[in-house]
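Fold it.
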Amino acid sequence: MNYSKTFSNPGILFIVLITVLSIHSCDDVESIGVTPDPVFVSNVDLETFSDNFGSDIQRDFLGTIVDTNNNPIAGVSVSVGGSNATTDNNGVFIIRDANVQSRFAYVKAERAGYLNASRSLVPTTGTNKVFIMMLPENNVGTVSSGTQETVSLSNGTSVTLNGNYVNENGETYSGNVSVIMHYLNPDDENMTQQMPGMLYAANADNEERILQTFGMLAIELRGDSGEDLNLANGSAAEISAPVPQSLLNDAPATIPLWSFNEEFGVWVEEGTATLDNGNYVGTVTHFSFWNFDIPFDGTNLCITFVDEDTNPLSNLNIRITSQTIGSGGGFTNEDGEACGPVPIGETLELVVSIVDACGINEIFTSTIGPFNSDSNLEIIIPNSALVDLTIETVKGRFANCNQEPVTDGYVKLSYGSIEVADMVTNSDLGNFEINFVRCNESNEFTLTGVDFTTSQSSDIIAYNFSTPLTDVGSIAACNDYAYNYITFQVGNYPPIQQIEAPFPISLNTDNNFGCSDGDIFGAGFFILSFSPFEMHLDINNFNGVGTYNGDDGMGDFNSSDSFAQLRITNMIQLGNGISQSRGLNFVGTAEVLTFGEVGEIVEILVTGTIDVFEAMPGIGNDILVEDNVPITGFMHLVRDN
């Protein structure tokens, strides 16, 4: 359970914090006076600290990943304990039997165009449901090496850089530096979904702590070619972030600074920050997520919720409030269980709600604790709290188009504006069962099944509840091309997502490919075209899985060289609304991640830059609108021959 001023859940409207950039520059690098803190001493050893994670176990994970507009993100690479998956076009992933620890699991999510995201949690015995909101790689400003500069946002967030940078190999970098920066406000209900890990940390003495946050910063640096950069050895930067007005009275004059360790999934104490005119200001020696937090002793708590007949209550919204740390929570799994860290020795307030077509309704409140060690608690929700509600069970069998049981998939139930997804519960029979508590607003719901093995889905099927048990029988996944889609973004122009390709990808015996009106094009290269705009990816001398480089639109398709070209036409999203805009001169890579057999998946990741032009009549008359615009894209297609 992550603790912050507010509690976030996916049923609530997401709010995007809009900030405005300002950059201040001067020439004297030495005048900044930003140097590493020589006093702070850390005894953190995360290998030893990880002994706190508990014994090795295996658990199942079902997750949804969205952007800051709450739109699902397809093509996200997700890993848990050495097991891997990719999100579908609903942003959903499934990982079964992942190797985790009894007190700690770490879910990592990566996709081009977004900052790396993650979620740490205390795993339950049932399905562990994960919700992550990824932050875009927003270039808020460009600075130059060798020059001190301050990049600021309109809310008072800033970073002061002294101009000394290195690349991933530790080599000195010279050139332009793109600054990516996000401020995470504890008063924002989305913060706990956007932040990495959970508020669980190793302090300077290598001891476990849970945290109360007063604000976070995500800062990353990119070079001219999109490479990751960081501060040079012995260099430092100053970060500053506003303290929300609601927390100012509780904000100490100095507060520990914590960085997020992406390898272990925990926060690490790395210095202090000082309160200055409503902002916390601190010095850092590298970039990642940074957090201004007060630490507390904590322990893990697992609660199981049942009714008076001991039936587990699934998909309840659980909120626990600490008078010292704030509020946090989550949802119960199919066993009625929710787990997370809580502060030691404190009486806590528990609020249980349902989130459904009627909104958010509190059904039960209680005080619990104090807890001084890892604890398990069973709470019986009395029938009087459920008198105006219905405990529903929807079950059935999920099969593929050959009526064989689906062994790797999920079924999504939609009721009003609420969606509940659950994995197929019996891999031998394809059975599924969804349990939840609802109001009596409507008896109508829909089901959709998704089969990861065949990349097919069922129709959206409408039903009526036959309370308390609705057996829908068998549903089948027969929609062959439900997962032909492409997602991409060019610079700061609006992203294109969830575009379903009108045709499957085709392959003939000469290694020629086509995806436009079903025709085969060219010799030895691969073309994709999607309407109403056109996006063409051409690969010369295609050899299957691998990386193909693009060099400013250059290349001879009559040669034996392997290379990629990318162009986009008729996109009103480009060129500030110019309907005849074009994206040309691709520099970057097209990485073919997966190239399956007929009926299987082809996945391609595109990263690099293009130049945006306004198309004009005649050859060579196009007008340059913007050059070297970053582009990221992901294609997920099904081969049909």
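Confidence is low (pLDDT under 50) at residues 3-32, 501-532.
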